[in-house]
Amino acid sequence: MNGGEVLLIDESYNANPASMAATLKSLGDEREIVRRIAVLGPMRELGDHSKELHADLAPAVLSAGVDRLILIGEEMNPLAAALDGRVETKRVFSVDEATDELRHLIRPGDAVLVKASNSVGLAKLVESMAKGLACST
């Protein structure tokens, strides 16, 4: 990517329903950006309510004005279903796939939120993107 800045919000170290909603709200509050991109992986250790709690993130995604969404893993299926095509979404099943998708998608003026439980390993995506952005600007 050449010719501009990207805001990369690293929230890759934990995730629960409240922190997901809060960071999505923060993404929505960002001003002077072109697009809002969210890379979301599963929230772990939610027990029997996992599917419902993932689906319940849909209003926060919509309220944040997310333009593009990258969802990682099968646990995110309920969120994709709840959004019902209202946000352009790419489904991937690994951090490497998410990284590749984000590299092709990102452009100057974007704000990118990266959020999932630590065990998903999204810190690898953040590190890779940060190095790539620093080298290309």
Please provide a written account of the structure.
This protein has 137 residues and is of the alpha/beta class. The chain has a single domain (7-136), classed as Alpha-Beta Complex (Protein-Tyrosine Phosphatase, Chain A), CATH 3.90.190.20. Helices cover 42% and strands 20% of the residues. The protein has six helices and five strands, in the order E-H-E-H-H-E-H-E-H-E-H. The chain has a five-stranded parallel β-sheet, sandwiched between helices. Helix 4 links the parallel strand 3 (68-72) and strand 4. Helix 5 (95-105) packs parallel to helix 6 (123-136). The radius of gyration is 14 Å and the shape is globular. The N and C termini lie close together (7 Å). 34% of the residues are buried.
List the helices and strands and how they pair.
Elements: E1 7-11, H1 17-29, E2 35-40, H2 50-55, H3 58-63, E3 68-72, H4 77-83, E4 88-92, H5 95-105, E5 110-115, H6 123-136
Helix pairs in contact: 5-6
Question: Any descriptors?
Answer:
single chain, 137 residues, alpha/beta, Protein-Tyrosine Phosphatase, Chain A, 5-stranded parallel β-sheet
CA radius of gyration is 14 Å
Number of domains: 1
Q: Count every helix, treating DSSP H or I runs of 4 or more residues as helices.
A: 6
How many runs of DSSP E, i.e. beta strands?
A: 5
